[in-house]
């Protein structure tokens, strides 16, 4: 599979994906509507890789534009990141999430079937809902507790229906746990608009003095220190999992589903303390009320990906907090 289309390619995960695809010798294209990202990211990718990646500013849901693209050249596989991803925003604007996330996925499915491309879909551990057991395996029951999670779940179910009707369609569903960190260059990273929803960008902005203090959402969970436990995974490990999935799709496996996590649970306060210790900075915080919709603990059993994709996470917390802080410092220097 030499030509890969990345949708959402100027986003946090997309930009790291573009960088690694070029490094691995893939012919790479990028589609993004720039709703939540900047085209400057492509300059950074070019600085890292030395290559200018063909970029189409478009909505992945735009069937006419996508059909023109797919008919103009062979696309062996699509890695579909494009979509809104903020849990809180999805509760306030559910229709925007359903329209955007579902439409773009349906268009990608139609294009892949019409032109014989494989698909890698960016799913999330959020489809496991409130864990019935831990660590989470791919066999855990599926449910969703917010509109964002429901878009992921409904797209997964749609993919399974399409796969049943088209056994020759090759698709990988990858369920991410909590992506953090940044490329070692510090040139690309998580760059949320406005007040960050996710923990790591908030920690970085607090350490940088942009935010006054981190609000820790509850310390009365049934966890070792009472704060939420998550499976944080370095973004470069997550991206390596996509390369492994692409290679697996070349064996024509039909529909495959894998967790991309480390298998290691880390609490919010553990992450904060490690961030301070490794980077020699302070992260002032205050314990506040729980955030609605949060689960106490969520971490992966990554053994299926190890067994079937030959993939497992390599980087630990020190790399995650160091690379996140490097990115924060670089992005302030620009
Ligand atoms: C992690 C922990 C919070 C912010 C969500 C989506 C998932 C994926 C990642 C998109 C929790 C605590 C956070 C803060 C805090 N989606 N926290 N103060 O909710 O596990 O996962 O984002 O990429 O699909 O569900 O990630 O980083 O928001 O929270 O205390 O200011 O940090 O309570 O325990 P989450 P998160």
UniProtKB/TrEMBL annotation:
Q: Which GO terms describe its cellular component?
A: cytosol
What gene is this protein translated from? Answer: galE
Q: Could you tell me the EC number(s) of this protein?
A: 5.1.3.2
Q: Which family does it belong to?
A: Belongs to the NAD(P)-dependent epimerase/dehydratase family.
Question: From the UniProt record, which GO molecular function terms apply?
Answer: UDP-glucose 4-epimerase activity
- Domain NAD(P)-binding as annotated: residue spans: 5-323
The protein's name:
UDP-glucose 4-epimerase
* Top-level taxonomic group: Bacteria
Q: Which UniProt keywords apply?
A: Carbohydrate metabolism, Isomerase, NAD
Q: Which cofactor does it need?
A: NAD(+)
Coiled-coil annotation reads none
Q: Please give the Pfam families that the UniProt record associates with this protein.
A: GDP_Man_Dehyd
Classification via PANTHER family: UDP-GLUCOSE 4-EPIMERASE (PTHR43725:SF47)
Reaction catalysis annotation = UDP-alpha-D-glucose = UDP-alpha-D-galactose
Q: What is the main EC category here?
A: isomerase
Q: How does it assemble?
A: Homodimer.
Pathways involved: Carbohydrate metabolism; galactose metabolism
Which Gene Ontology terms describe the biological processes this protein takes part in?
Answer: galactose metabolic process
Q: Does the keyword Transport apply?
A: no
